[in-house]
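## Example record

The block below lists the input lines for one assembly entry, exactly as stored, with component labels intact.
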Amino acid sequence: MLDFEKLYSTTARETKKSAIRELLKLADRPEVISFAGGWPSPDLFPVDAISDLTVKVLKDRGRKVLHYSKAEGEVRLKEELIRYMAKDGVQAAPENILVLTGSQQGLDMLPKAFVDRGDVVFVETPTYVGAIQSFANYGTRMVPVATDDEGMDPEALEKAIQEWKERGEGGRLKMVYLIPDFQNPSGITMSEERRLGVLEVAARHGLLVVDDAPYRDLRFEGESVPSLYTLDKNESVISLYTFSKTLVPGLRVAWAVGPKSLIDKFTTLKQSVDLCSSALAQHVVAEYLAAGMMEQYLPKFIDDYRAKRDIMLKAMDEYLPKLDGLKWTRPQGGLFIWITLPEHLDAEKLFHAAVKEDVAFVLGSAFHPYGGLKNCFRLNFSFAEPDRIREGVARLGRALDVFAKASA
Amino acid sequence: MLDFEKLYSTTARETKKSAIRELLKLADRPEVISFAGGWPSPDLFPVDAISDLTVKVLKDRGRKVLHYSKAEGEVRLKEELIRYMAKDGVQAAPENILVLTGSQQGLDMLPKAFVDRGDVVFVETPTYVGAIQSFANYGTRMVPVATDDEGMDPEALEKAIQEWKERGEGGRLKMVYLIPDFQNPSGITMSEERRLGVLEVAARHGLLVVDDAPYRDLRFEGESVPSLYTLDKNESVISLYTFSKTLVPGLRVAWAVGPKSLIDKFTTLKQSVDLCSSALAQHVVAEYLAAGMMEQYLPKFIDDYRAKRDIMLKAMDEYLPKLDGLKWTRPQGGLFIWITLPEHLDAEKLFHAAVKEDVAFVLGSAFHPYGGLKNCFRLNFSFAEPDRIREGVARLGRALDVFAKASA
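Predicted structure tokens for the full assembly:
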């Protein structure tokens, strides 16, 4: 047999199976209540609408939507995206948009387009595990920047940039990667002041700013904060959006918005990444938007997730033991709550105790490029049923109580 | 505005817009008969069947198929693929299969998994333009190996390997990339002897063999040659298949078959490339296979393409001028005919003359990593209507006649 290990690229050799996925296999039993997945609630999927729209698109457009699409995406979808984003203050032309096969494809194209091995990307602490994996595949050096309940601190970013330069380790500074709205995993939304501050620092140092915005439209309450794309004066922001959290993941329709020259480059790269996204899926989403169904269904998503967040937060207040240093975020939208344990407690040990109680979550270390945040973890509140949320938090409370006492 | 050129990776800087695509824009007028695209005939797409199956899948499986799928692909589709491939003598287990979002995704993952900048891949002369682009994106050095009407010559491969080693330019030798059946662009099918010969040379030098097989099931006549995957005794072959040419491109369903450890590695990489392929599209294809529709519809594709090939070859015999050194292939399947002009004639000049006559094709140089094959070009016969094929070849004949006389 051929020895593949000897043939693999540096990327393939360094790519590890996700430790988190392996760990979560321990929790893959029906009796386990999982708060682990970053999943929307399938109960909300408008299955009949998607079925009807598929039939309609195939009837109206026939063979064309089963053929190859263009790399840049279907004009019809772009028109609807422009209208959709305009409601959020985003002004875009078709040339500013590239349709993606899921926004993970955008996360893969960012380092492909910008990173040579050893180049540097600044990220929030914590940051999204899927972005870490994509950046790591291209040999990116990630620098976690101090982040609090208002988001990444621009002064900390400036300091991190200066320190990197002073250390003289080489590696060109390329971008700042942010999830400004209802962040994954923290649930935190970046304040307008912080957004302006980070844009200013990035502009000064000539860095691209990535605005990863899968949860932006899932606001439960409070004022929307202007998006980085709308605040940007330097044509230095690329935004990634997706329908995976506001409609369904299964159509794999997402999109990037950015300066024309950058979208051009991404489009050329997309030709060799997957040629094009499905025309059929693009037209189904376009019809969904055109028919005003987003306005009809999205509020149901928001109402459901708000209710579930409330149930989870209430259960946490009720069932989690009162420990010095134990705290958690109270997000105004999105899918996630972030828990910080007292510093001396290891979330991985708690994980094993929790799985014995039949409840699961994702370790904080998954959201740090080099395995920090060992006393933190992420809870998802969108996927489980309300009763299961309460029961799961009660189990978590028991596990934490026993674990904290044993570690005291 | 941010200066992206200064920030781009080597990949992004080196990636050029396809010269071919730019050239073909000249031919993007309705009066031009295009033999350029590598497209199936949309008239053959089973639109109603796909519409009905989508409704059925959504009714039977509901929300699940609109959720995230697994990176490795849906079990249900893998079962059907195993049955489908078994008819071709391919024995595969689910662990040997990775579902891809179009086989171009496989072409992108090959260099991602195997190529560090400067590493070497051996290719046919000519070879597929989409593979050239993907390999180029990862800084692959491609070595075109002498190829005749029986496919790549194993002795030429051995010689190319020896010469590379002797030159001592560095770069590790990684794989041999082949399209053994009805090759794109040449239409040539590799003989069994050549297949065994290339496998033997590759095994001796520890190289991966890629069997890119999008056209394999489009045989019009003659005996099928055993696939590289079935001939391989060394677990050194990965095959790429797709439904883009035998069903529709628009579902973006393709798959890779290979040794378990390699499929494992590709699956890990796919997690960060696009998370997963559409579960809905996978189940539609699975139902199509399970219902025996491939057996029902594929013969229609084959009959149509055979008839069109015959029409094109007959028109070529009739309309192309008799020139010393002018020749073309007579493929037993697939989508393409490859034309070689007398050595002194430049296909790019002919292209401009042809476009004036309102007919288009793809230059041979697109199918060579470093722009060779300047006296060759590719004709597609699957897309245009029969009348248009005859008329297009007549136009091509006129353009070539005038051009040859002017160049004499």
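Chain A touches chain B through 86 residues (CB under 8 Å). Chain A has 15 helices and 15 strands.
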